[in-house]
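Hey,
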Amino acid sequence: MTDSSQISTDVSTSNGKPPQPPQPPLLEVSDLKKHFPLAKGLFSRDQSKVYAVDGVSFHINQGETLGLVGESGCGKSTVGRTVLRLLDPTDGSIKLNGRDITHLSKTEMRPVRREMQIIFQDPYSSLNPRMTAGGIVEEMLRVHGIGTPAERKERVAELFERVGLRKAQLESFPHEFSGGQRQRIGIARALALNPSVIIGDEPVSALDVSIQAQVINLLMDLQAELNLSYLFIAHDLAVVEHISHRIAVMYLGKIVEYTDKKTLFTNPQHPYTEALLSAVPVPDPTIKRKKTILQGDVPSPIKPPPGCHFHTRCPYAEERCKVEVPQLKQFGPDHVVSCHLR
């Protein structure tokens, strides 16, 4: 049997061109941590911290969507805001196009921000009620000094049409739009600077189900058209399955499972992932699915449990799980799991 790597080498050299190295990830996050100190008073010796993000690693390729899922409070949104450098990381590294942006100053980050944008969760509070819809989108271009006033207005009108809004709505104020339309304004604002990466911080969770589908389809169409990369943060696994290529599951500041969406939904390996999937409604009433009911509440991120953070709720926990922290280890091709039992 011929080795597959030899095949690829032979093919690449037969046309007179040297083999190309694999393309590096567009966004690469390594061992990212974000801890928030708790102030207890001027003379307090208590050094308690909130371990919001505690060692998260992932990468996103060009034109790919990584879904980041987990319960509320697990640190998903903090990951997104830290990657954007809206929050300064406590530790770890963030690389964009191979460039380390972890410790760049605000001035140095300014041109980098054109490459990374965010769509916020709440389409109501994320828009300035005193500005017109067109002004909200144009502000991005004006702040970065792009184009003349006439060119900016033309660009904004083009963006409105691209996200399904009308030019006639440019002078309308946010309160004159529906929730779905407001989120389309947010998407247009994120697209204004032609970014490479867009972070969606639960961008459809505040919308009706029918509107959610429209916005998700719009995001997928834009990705296909513009070759965008998404970090899509959500707690709804059905939505994540529809839009994502790969999925990372978070629990209490850590990633516990990380693989492609097909593998995650057909062969989950972490008990927490199994519990999340068992809660997803099945549209066929004839299919019976065993539900996993987790006991207890999510522990406090101020004082996470020792060992595996999930052992206090895991139905399979052993003594080892209570004292030894599991590391992410390879379970299969492009499939890593943080569990002693795997």
